[in-house]
Amino acid sequence: MNVITDLVDKAKELVSEATLSPRPAPPIPYGMLAELTHRCPLQCPYCSNPVELDRRNVELDTETWLRVFSEAAKLGVLQVHLSGGEPTARRDLEQMIRHCVEVGLYTNLITAGVGVTPERLQSISDAGIDHVQLSFQGATAEVTDKVSNFRGAHERKLAVAREVRRLGLPLTVNSVVHRANIHQIPAFIELALELDAKRIEIAHSQYYGWALRNRGALMPTRDQVFWALDVVEEARVRLKGRLTIDAVVPDYYAKYPKPCMNGWGRQSLNVTPSGRVLPCHAAETIPNLDFWNVRDHSLSDVWLNAPSFNAFRGTDWMPELCQSCERKEVDWGGCRCQAMAIAGDAAATDPACHKSPLHAHLLALAEADAATGEAEYDYRRYSVPDRNN
Amino acid sequence: MTATFAATDVPKLARGVRLRHDDARGQWVLLAPERVLNPDPVAVEILKRVDGARSIDVIVDELASAFTVDRDRVATDVDAFLAGLAEKGMVELRPAVIGDAAS
Ligand code: SF4
Ligand code: SF4
Predict the structure, then answer these.
(1) Spatial contact of B52 and B10, defined as CB atoms under 8 Å apart
(2) Closest Cα to residue B95, out of B61, B65, B57?
(3) Residue A134 main-chain phi, psi, to 5 deg
(4) Which residues on A lie below 8 Å from B34 (Cβ)?
(5) How far is it, in rounded angstroms, from Cα A246 to Cα A236?
(6) Which positions in chain B have a beta carbon within 8 angstroms of at least one beta carbon in chain A?
(7) In this structure, are strands A79-83 and A31-35 parallel, antiparallel, or unpaired?
(8) For A271-288, how does the pLDDT look when each residue is reduced to its tens digit (9 = 90+)?
(9) Strand ranges of the sheet holding A171-177, from the earlier edge strand across to the other edge
(10) Self-association or partners: how does it assemble (chain B) (predicted)?
(11) Are A65 and A36 a contacting pair, CB within 8 Å?
């Protein structure tokens, strides 16, 4: 018969997402977040970096990062997210990108854009970067500058976005939404279109670390959240084929928790500036987990054997409530860090789940925070200014 | 069905889209911004030839002879396949350049 009969059907299959069906253990990670530095000119109050920021003098050197990238490629990682802090604060960024390209890794730059000159972008592009994600703290200068605590940040970001497109690089606009900018979602979407981005990420602030400190000033109301969901859904349909909208939904007001990381130690890993390997960027908020460092272990050794990775891998660790639930391999019991923050037990069912005995408590917290009217932020910064910054 | 593209058009993967073999999982993958796609073997045969040098005509010729199937059929399918990727911004097409005209 003929091999090519259903080429068109195959084509349709091709453009559907990769099927990430559960694999026999051990799983193979798809993505690695490389937090190259915690240094950053901005001070976003929801920053996902830990409250105790790594200083420059503890950052991994170039050679170690190159080794980690080689090990990641061998382990099966396909995409590397070069992030921070502000990754362009590392002068060896281009060297790392070239190395990633050499070992076959797809490279994604996650930048705040401030301080990135056209010359620097050109050199990053020449090094072979595949994709640029640029954060916008607001859809207008007023909001961006206030949230990032940096006057003129917005203008600089606009210039960087135009330069990225002039170089022919694909651009994603990243926006983290919370009470001070959630009403700007339509404007964020317009901004992405205007900047010729093919993709926008609209992520609701996740309440760990800095954002937990600032929850009173960040938490949106339930009405705002549901309005936002509608706006995003409508835009998705309207802009199909023009703009991809990826949204990270808030789960405080939801019935089910988010499938955090699509399962602990299942698809991705995170390396901090000083070399600790984490199952997710907030994992260090869980006390007593033994995080291994790439200075002492190969990446695959960490992935396969570190107690921190095995602590919540699969479903065996789950409490009875999740064990007996049909969604246990859908949302993986939700977020361990949220369970830690709210229930005081990282192995509890995520209180965002309506079945959790703490669900009402979580909801009450959110509603109380949303009603505070607090507008001052505890900005993200080094406790004592980093002298080398 | 009418073709979306001219047979002389030359397709090329857009910047930020890469086809590679994934040795760890023993499969081909098409990598794009925040996406990992699994092309099946037939799609892979097409994608391997989308190199910014071969025209659609050449790609169709190669596939038709490699798989010994009806050429018209292949042409229709390749066109539809590329149209799908072009709509997603993953493939770009440029008209053939005659000789070495200034571009
Ligand atoms: S969230 Fe803001 S402060 Fe944190 S790294 Fe990104 S730009 Fe810098
Ligand atoms: S009980 Fe556990 S597995 Fe079931 S929906 Fe809630 S969090 Fe998910």
Answers:
(1) yes
(2) B57
(3) -120, 125
(4) 79, 108, 131, 172, 199, 246
(5) 9
(6) 14-16, 18, 20, 22-25, 29-31, 33-40, 42-43, 46, 63, 67, 69-70, 73-74, 77-78, 80-81, 84-85, 87-89
(7) parallel
(8) 999 999 999 988 998 998
(9) A244-248, A199-204, A171-177, A131-135, A106-111, A79-83, A31-35, A268-271, A277-278
(10) Monomer. Interacts with PqqE.
(11) yes
Q: Give the model confidence (pLDDT) of A108-119 as tens digits.
A: 999 999 999 999
Which residues in chain A belong to E strands, given as ranges? 31-35, 79-83, 106-111, 131-135, 171-177, 199-204, 244-248, 268-271, 277-278
Establish whether this prediction's ipTM goes over 0.85: yes
Q: Residue A137 is encoded by which pair of tokens? A: 């703290």
Beta carbons of B33 and B16 less than 8 angstroms apart: yes
Token output for B12? 């090329």
Name the pTM for this structure: 0.89
Q: What digits encode the pLDDT tens for the residues A208-247? A: 889 989 999 999 999 999 999 999 999 999 998 899 999 8
End-to-end, the C-alpha distance of chain A in Å comes to: 66
Please give the Cα distance from A340 to A287 (Å, whole number). Answer: 9
